[in-house]
Amino acid sequence: MYARFFKRPLDFCCALAAIICLSPVLVVLTVLGAIKMKGNPFFTQPRPGLNEKIFKLIKFRTMTNEKDAQGNLLPDDKRLNAYGKFLRSTSLDELPELFNILKGDMALIGPRPQLVRDMVFMTPEQRKRHSVRQGLSGLAQISGRNAVTWEAKIGYDLKYIKKISFLGDVKIILTTLGKVFKRDGITEEGCDTATDLGDYLLAIGKITREQYDRGQQEARRLIAEAA
Fold it and tell me: What is the model's pTM?
């Protein structure tokens, strides 16, 4: 009953209330972001949502668009400045996703929306995580966020969708707030950003280079079709 009839209306009301209450913070971060990132303070990216429908996730930009002499973007660690690290460590970069929730692309709680190039490397069983709206936070995030393996992360997502409840969502929200306060589990050890699923599977020998290239091509096709 909760998942089918009450979860979406509650998400809408909570997102609207949060946007109104946090509007001063959103305005300040928008202005600061424009200064620190020397341009557009927002970052949008196609992500697979409910039933694998691709939507544009919006966040505050945490990396600059600095390029080398050849016009190629610099490595992540070079573009992730102090301001971007602050946004990530406090999870403030996630605040614009409240508008995704308001629109209906996302939920407050659910599996985190991964990249399209991650989804194409998931097994049919793992892709069941897209049978619900993707969330601002979820069971995987309170269980280690980016500091857990891909297998564990997706396992938590599948566990969540099997038993969605109001009390369960409240528990995840409260635990998320605690982890954000502690700045816990933001990235993998030794990494500035999380490793893509395809790169991870290739590195451990679970897929071949040919399979990797086919997956990347499929991801590009899906994004182009959704544009």
Answer: 0.89
